[in-house]
């Protein structure tokens, strides 16, 4: 049991490291692609990859379970990414990054009421406050540059809440014991299907010639195969092993990974405020996880 939880922590950490670097690929693709185009192409590519990886059809034992997969697809794929992308058109990326990082708080609250065995602990709340303080320092090293837009902030909060619903749904789905690749593939299918109507209300172009550019091809492959197909599977595996609350706190690390990759790849400067924010964020993560760690130690 203990090695499974350790594997769960490793997969959650791996997922966050990949997700924290996706902004670089997205930034490169935004030169010739719209946000909705990037979103659609990456998830279609991810869906195809999962079908190839595990082509066996998922047979549900209960017809009502289909509603959970529809809900997971709509929340975790369609709504979350659309709301996040739209929010980015109204407010600063740093604002959205901070607000989206509060999703573990929403996840903890929903888990407390809708998932048995996952209760809200005081250490989680303390860790949340410490981590969010650190994330704010990372995102706003110079508070004179902070500009708020109510529409953007509201959309980002909605995206954060939507992701917490997705976390609850995937936790419930994981309890059925189905293959994780199959369940992720079904979620991708519904997410992509419900994304199609949005294409007609945006400047979407099905222009695949753009992918003859090796840079664009490489980055969309990274987003589709890595950040989507592989990482959604690994994230769902982590949720299956650790639960929705424990897995969600790893989201605190996304801004930290972003800062590190910005320094290593884009050669952006790291200030002492950023270092302090990183330390606080990691401390908040440790505090949030401490209750589960101590509980496991007592068992042994």
From TrEMBL:
Residues 7-139, 151-287 form the EamA domain. Keywords: Cell membrane, Membrane, Transmembrane, Transmembrane helix. It is a multi-pass membrane protein. It is found in: Cell membrane. SUPFAM superfamilies: Multidrug resistance efflux transporter EmrE. The chain crosses the membrane at residues 7-30, 36-55, 67-83, 95-115, 122-140, 146-166, 187-204, 216-237, 249-266, 272-294. PANTHER family: INNER MEMBRANE TRANSPORTER, S-ADENOSYLMETHIONINE_S-ADENOSYLHOMOCYSTEINE TRANSPORTER. Belongs to the EamA transporter family. This is DMT family transporter. It comes from Clostridium facile.
């Amino acid at each position: 049991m203990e090695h499974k939880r350790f594997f769960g922590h490793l997969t959650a950490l791996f997922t966050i490291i990949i997700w924290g670097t996706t902004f670089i690929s997205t930034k490169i693709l935004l030169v010739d692609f719209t946000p909705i185009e990037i979103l659609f192409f990456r998830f279609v590519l991810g869906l195809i990859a999962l079908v190839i990886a595990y082509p066996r059809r998922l047979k549900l034992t209960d017809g009502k379970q289909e509603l959970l997969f529809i809900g997971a697809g709509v929340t975790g794929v369609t709504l979350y990414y659309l709301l996040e992308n739209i929010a980015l058109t109204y407010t600063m990326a740093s604002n959205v990054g901070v607000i989206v990082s509060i999703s573990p708080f929403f996840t903890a609250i929903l888990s407390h009421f809708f998932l048995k065995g996952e209760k809200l602990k005081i250490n989680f709340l303390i860790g949340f406050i410490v981590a969010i303080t650190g994330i704010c320092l990372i995102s706003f090293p110079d508070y004179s540059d902070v500009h708020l837009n109510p529409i953007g902030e509201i959309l980002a909060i909605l995206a954060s809440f939507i992701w917490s619903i997705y976390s609850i749904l995937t936790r419930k789905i994981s309890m059925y014991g189905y293959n994780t690749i199959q369940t992720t593939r079904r979620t991708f299918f519904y997410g992509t299907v419900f994304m199609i109507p949005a294409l007609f209300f945006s400047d979407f172009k099905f222009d695949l010639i753009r992918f003859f550019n090796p840079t664009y091809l490489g980055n969309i492959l990274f987003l589709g195969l890595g950040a989507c197909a592989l990482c959604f599977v690994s994230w769902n595996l982590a949720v299956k092993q650790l639960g929705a609350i424990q897995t969600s706190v790893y989201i605190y690390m996304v801004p930290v990974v972003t800062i590190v990759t910005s320094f290593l790849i884009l050669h952006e400067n790291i200030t002492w405020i950023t270092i302090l924010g990183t330390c606080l964020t990691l401390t908040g993560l440790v505090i949030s996880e401490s209750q589960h760690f101590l509980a496991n130690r007592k068992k042994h």
